[in-house]
């Protein structure tokens, strides 16, 4: 199994097909999309990109999911998911985490004012995972999963299913989503909640590269304390925290607060972002990012500069 060395998490393992997503053109583009826009002009170490962050979030999503399931089953004495369901959910979560930032514009959030009205970077993420070579790889992963585990189409993995779980505003229109409604809502919490793996990674990564301590917290304690709250009567499953992890979670919340006031909302960085938008507006045709995904993918920080 391929391994990538990460400065925050050490060695990160991927499957051969997950590595093909990393090797794809849309994902390699993230090497040239800075995580923190113009922050490198204030904190000169902040040259890191969406590339490493996306791989780190995938790694944490696996750790967090397995820890939460293990803690629930140990404490309750009951199995939350069947073995095949747990394996399927983990693979879905890994792919969502790996691809969740593919649609970012040059300089990430710094230039999102240049999207056409009503568009966000998540709209381009959807287009990329559903309309490019990434879609073909996701479908292959789904086919291999069904074949290797000897299961039917009920366990297929498609770009549309990934988007239904993570980004779709009305996911109930997907019959496959409806069949696993409670479980898929739980999966989304690992990527979009007050204690999600996206925040877990970017706080530590941004703090490390900016050369500050504001974003540091006890990652291992937080992950080891994750569990699931299950209301069997209403079939509600929610990501939860064991009592012993409350102080680590408080540290996590405080770390996020200090990173926002000291780094993300730094007055000079905010001003530079506004100047950046004015400059990009002048060099773009129609003063807006293109809406066609193939044209959009040609743009990155280097091209803009």
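^ Assign residues to that structure.
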């Amino acid at each position: 199994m391929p391994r990538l060395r990460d400065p925050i998490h050490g060695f990160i393992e991927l499957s051969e097909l997950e590595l093909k997503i990393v090797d794809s053109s849309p994902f390699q583009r993230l090497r040239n999309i800075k995580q923190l826009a113009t922050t490198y002009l204030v904190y000169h170490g902040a040259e890191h990109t969406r590339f490493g962050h996306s791989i780190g979030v995938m790694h944490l999503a696996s750790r967090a999911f397995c820890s939460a399931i293990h803690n629930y089953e140990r404490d309750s004495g009951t199995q939350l998911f069947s073995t095949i369901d747990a394996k399927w959910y983990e693979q879905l979560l890994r792919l969502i985490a790996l691809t969740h930032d593919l649609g970012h514009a040059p300089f990430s959030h710094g230039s999102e004012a240049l999207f056409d009205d009503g568009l966000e970077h998540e709209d381009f993420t959807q287009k990329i995972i559903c309309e490019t070579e990434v879609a073909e790889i996701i479908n292959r992963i789904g086919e291999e999963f069904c074949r290797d585990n000897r299961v039917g189409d009920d366990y297929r993995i498609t770009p549309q299913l990934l988007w239904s779980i993570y980004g779709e505003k009305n996911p109930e229109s997907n019959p496959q989503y409806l069949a696993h409604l409670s479980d898929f809502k739980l999966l989304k919490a690992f990527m979009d909640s007050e204690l999600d793996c996206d925040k877990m990674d970017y706080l530590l990564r941004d703090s490390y590269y900016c050369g500050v301590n504001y974003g540091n917290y006890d990652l291992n304690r937080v992950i080891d304390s994750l569990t699931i709250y299950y209301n069997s009567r209403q079939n509600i499953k929610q990501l939860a925290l064991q009592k012993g992890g409350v102080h680590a979670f408080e540290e996590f919340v405080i770390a996020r607060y200090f990173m926002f006031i000291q780094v993300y909302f730094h007055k000079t960085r905010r001003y530079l972002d506004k100047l950046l938008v004015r400059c990009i507006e002048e060099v773009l045709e129609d003063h807006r990012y293109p809406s066609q995904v193939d044209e959009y993918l040609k743009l990155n920080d280097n091209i803009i500069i």
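The mean pLDDT is 95.
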